[in-house]
Specification:
The complex is a heterodimer of chains A (698) and B (70). Chain A is mostly helical and 698 residues long. Chain A has 26 helices and 8 strands. In chain A, strands 3-7-4-6-5-8 form a 6-stranded mixed barrel. In chain A, strand 1 and strand 2 form a beta hairpin. The longest helix of chain A has 50 residues. With 70 residues, chain B is mostly helical. Chain B has 2 helices and no strands. Chain B starts with 7 loop residues before the first helix and ends with a helix. The chains are: A mainly alpha (698), B mainly alpha (70). Chains A and B meet through helix 5, helix 10 and helix 12 of A and helix 1 and helix 2 of B.
């Protein structure tokens, strides 16, 4: 396998620099819409579905990347699209189960859900797992960026007589610094708007590569028949080879990956939360999965297919020993002229940056909400006025973004041992996703799921996963569907099935054992010094965890250890963690969404159908966050005093940029006029003389 | 000609096992009344969710036929 270097010409670099400068300036402009951490992270919950949908393209395409799908397109053909086209199975429970919970409970992070649904202790455990998941994801993104940019650079630079070699790690660090700039100063609104532009450019650039590639080969018919028959199929072979098989990828990507991406990828969830309302978030998701994902599948994979077809030409313009992770760059370099090559690479790199910046933003959100805020609350620290506090929180968010970027760089090291990014990503999903997926799934859809169940899902489930990774031949082979075991990277994909089973399994079993465990704990409480004994079970559990992590003893011993661990953790959870069904279930499971809406509104909801009205606006000289419309306009909206409303600039192409959520105050008699307070006006940045639309939400 | 394990078996598994997840999800959201087919808007969403399932199934079916016979 040969690695490429020095493909970029001066023209290409000039085009790339102009592209990046333009994108960064564009992003920085939107920083003015950040008035609080809510705006910084969630874009103020104001945008239209189409804006969200297109901005998701850049995140989704970037994260799955041109690099890894082109590599698999070269190695295995059209089947490289299958991971883009297996996301529909979980859409019903995502759109109607999880999304309403996330929006109506105003979740700022996934770990926050675990505190509301279970207890603060569970939140801390979930935070660790969530941060590991997100930092791992960031590591994959940065590694992919390094693999994209490195082939464009020469093997070394000579500066002041010194020769500086170009290494992938050096490239990753340089790119991470650039990424940090606009995410740090722009926030989520900047991300959404730069992603809107990048998403569109990316789709066009990818389709452009496909069209000029087909043209280069002599037409679609020629391209199709240059591909070997097995390369034309849309799904991989059922269970072989180990590095790309259907059944493994179905469980790793179609199940663990899809649920993980939809339910716990805060980068994605924050996009949906920045939609103006639930229905708009659903529309964005549906449009994305039905239309943009199939197009994206072609966009990201086609360079690999074109590359495979090129290998069938005599003589082949593509080196047969090309590194699969570099085929996108190599093929584009062959078929595109100078400058155009630079533009395509800039679009690709920008998309990757998009994924990375979303992730950094999301990781910082988790830090701010799940570490910074609880610590601040614990030490009851307030430093000044509300305004200065908000400013300090924004600064803390920016510093957190920079620190996690550094940690993300370190996370690239373990993933770089895999032959391709695709396999590194597959392995990452198999390992990091199942505990969180099982915990969220059971928590959101099963009222009976207990605090002991969720703690055991995290600690017991992950312990059994570690044992499975150590003894795959014994524990994973029986459920591997005949996938051969690669001794170097055993069961990269199908291990997700084993991991999912053990995480769900221990959580469900412990939940069913809640009554006998409670009985046992009640009996223990009758023993003198019971608290000391129970504290001992926590210490023993920690020691058992260490035994498993350090692989002390053989398989039978480790399995026995993990069962004892599960028992002790469950017992300690029932003893120490209080669970009140009234407060821990209300509005937090699929069975109580209406209650979630009431909590969201702070009163009885109003879901009567009403009109969206168009009005002129006048400023009310107070900062109260309410609006006033006429009695007649309220009737048209079927609205009442106290209802939640969404007011936006009526120009649809703004996609909700100039908008704000507010509440209806007492009506007046001036039809066609809305009175807006100073705070609402500043937040939405309404323009004088422009018509507004007012829409009742709840 | 590609083997059955590369052509139709993955298709059957994808929409068989994936179909179980999908149907279970549909039953769950209806039972929890978060998707209520008696409401006009929800009827549209209900239709759209089933449409999406068969839409992807049709795309994969056509792609396999094209790979095998074109």
């Amino acid at each position: 396998m040969e690695s490429l270097h020095g493909l970029g010409t001066t023209t290409d670099w000039v085009v790339m620099l102009i592209y990046f400068a333009g994108i960064m300036l564009f992003g920085s402009y939107f920083a003015k819409y950040n008035r609080s951490t809510n705006d910084f992270f969630f874009g103020g919950r104001r945008f239209a579905w189409w804006l969200i949908s297109v901005s998701i393209v850049a995140t989704g395409v970037g994260s799955h990347s041109f690099i890894k799908y082109s590599a698999k397109g070269l190695e295995h053909g059209i089947a490289s699209t299958m991971t883009y086209m297996n996301d529909w199975f979980f859409m019903p429970i995502f759109l109607f189960g999880w999304l309403p919970i996330v929006i109506y409970t105003r979740l700022k992070s996934i770990p926050e859900y675990f505190e509301k649904r279970f207890s603060p202790t569970v939140r801390y455990i979930a935070t660790i797992f969530q941060l590991l998941y997100m930092i791992g994801y960031l590591g994959i993104g940065l590694l992919t960026l390094g693999k994209t940019i490195t082939p464009l650079l020469p093997q070394s630079f000579a500066i002041l007589g010194m020769t500086i070699p170009v290494t992938m790690m050096g490239v990753i660090i340089a790119i991470a610094v650039i990424t940090g700039i606009y995410i740090t100063f722009g926030g989520q609104t900047a991300v959404i708007f730069t992603d809107l532009i990048q998403g569109l450019i990316l789709l066009l650039a990818g389709l452009f590569v496909f069209i000029i590639g087909i043209n280069y080969l002599g037409g679609f018919d020629k391209f199709w028949h240059l591909l070997p028959p097995d390369w034309r199929l849309p799904l991989a072979d059922f269970n072989k080879p180990p590095d790309f098989n259907f059944v493994g990828i179905f469980w790793q990507d179609g199940v663990a990956g899809s649920v993980g991406f939809l339910f716990m990828n805060m980068g994605l969830i924050m996009r949906f939360m920045s939609a103006k309302n639930l229905d708009e978030g659903r529309k964005a998701a549906i449009f994305n999965v039905l239309f943009l994902l199939p197009i994206s599948a072609i966009v990201v994979s086609n360079a690999g297919w074109i590359g495979k077809a090129m290998l069938g030409l005599v003589p082949s313009p593509l080196n047969a020993n090309v590194n699969p992770d570099e085929v996108f760059v190599a093929v584009t370099h062959i078929i595109a002229s100078k400058g155009v090559f630079g533009f395509v690479i800039a679009a690709l790199t920008a998309a990757l940056l998009s994924t990375v910046d979303s992730l950094i933003n999301a990781i910082a959100a988790v830090y701010m909400n799940d570490i910074h805020a609880p610590l601040k609350e614990k030490f009851k620290k307030t430093f000044g006025t509300k305004e200065s506090e908000t400013k300090k929180e924004l600064n803390a968010a920016r510093i957190a973004s920079a620190v996690f970027t550094g940690i993300g760089i370190l996370a690239t090291i373990p993933f770089s041992s895999y032959p391709t990014v695709y396999e590194a990503h597959g392995y990452f999903h198999s390992i990091f996703t199942p505990p969180l997926v099982a915990a969220i799934f059971l928590g959101a859809f099963w009222n009976r799921f207990t605090t002991a169940g969720v703690v055991v899902t995290f600690l017991g489930g992950s312990s059994l996963m570690i044992i499975g990774a150590r003894y795959p031949g014994v524990l994973i082979t029986p459920i591997a569907h005949g996938v051969p075991m690669d001794p170097v990277h055993p069961y990269t994909y199908i291990s997700a099935l084993y991991n999912t089973i053990v995480c769900f399994g221990v959580g469900i079993i412990v939940t069913f054992l809640q009554d006998p465990l409670t009985l046992l704990v009640n009996n223990i409480k009758k023993i003198p010094n019971h608290k000391i004994y129970m504290s001992g079970t926590v210490v023993i559990s920690a020691l058992l965890l260490l035994l498993i992590w350090f692989n002390i003893g053989g398989l039978p011993f480790l399995l026995l250890t993990s069962f004892i661990l599960v028992f002790f953790v469950a017992l300690a959870s029932v003893y120490f963690l209080k669970f009140d069904p009234d407060s821990h279930l209300e509005g937090l499971t699929i069975w109580s969404i209406d209650r979630a809406k009431e909590i969201f509104k702070g009163g009885k909801i109003n879901e009567r159908d009403g009109e969206i009205i168009k009005v002129n606006w006048k400023l009310r000289n107070d900062a109260e966050e309410i609006i006033n419309v006429s009695i007649k306009d309220m009737e048209r909206m079927s609205a009442e005093v106290g209802d939640l409303v969404y007011i936006s600039d009526a120009r649809k192409y703004l996609g909700g940029l100039k908008s704000v959520h507010s509440r209806l105050g007492e009506p007046h008699n001036e039809d066609g006029i809305v009175y807006v307070g100073i705070e609402n006006k500043e937040s939405a940045q309404f323009v004088e003389g422009k018509i507004l639309s007012v829409e009742k939400e709840l | 000609m590609p083997s059955f394990s590369h052509s139709w078996l993955p298709f059957i598994y994808l929409y068989g096992v994936g179909g179980i997840f999908f149907i279970a999800g549909m039953i769950l959201i209806k039972k929890a009344k978060v998707l209520n087919p008696e409401k006009k808007l929800d009827r549209r969403w209900n239709w759209l969710l089933y449409f999406g399932f068969f839409y992807y199934m049709a795309i994969h079916f056509i792609m396999i036929i094209a790979a095998l016979y074109w």
